[in-house]
Specification:
134 residues; 7 helices; 0% strand
């Protein structure tokens, strides 16, 4: 099965991707010249779905500044923390990734950790010995 879109699929995508679309699936199918069930089968295809999503982004990206602006107004009015988190994630200002930068030599860090572990072990052995004597 080919992953190329045919002319009818391209026409359907152009209609489906329109913001404020008022046409029903029956009307879209009729205009494109296929059965409504065919339209639903196409929507299950990965390559059709990806092409539709790409077209939706293309036709709506000019409106994103207005959308972000309205989200900011909504956050100010409602204090919606989830919307705020989503907004700053969209701007790349919040990620789930935590980065730790060490300015010391990794070998030195390892040596220091080994010394601390040895010190802890000595202290633990001394405490055990002291408890045994008592």
């Amino acid at each position: 099965m080919s992953n190329r879109l045919n002319e009818k699929q391209i026409a359907a995508i152009a209609i489906l991707a329109q913001p404020k679309r008022t046409m029903t699936y029956e009307q879209i199918a009729e205009q494109v010249g296929v059965a409504k069930s065919t339209l639903f089968e196409w929507k299950k295809l990965d390559h059709f779905d990806k092409a539709l999503n790409k077209e939706i982004v293309r036709v709506t990206k000019d409106r994103l500044p207005d959308v972000f602006d309205s989200i900011i107004d909504n956050i100010k009015q409602t204090g919606n923390a989830a919307a705020f988190r989503t907004l700053i994630q969209a701007h790349g200002m919040l990620t789930d990734k935590i980065e730790i930068e060490s300015k010391q030599n990794p070998a030195t860090d390892m040596e220091q950790m080994m010394r601390e572990i040895e010190q802890y072990q000595r202290e633990t052995e001394l405490r055990k010995a002291k408890n045994t004597e008592e």
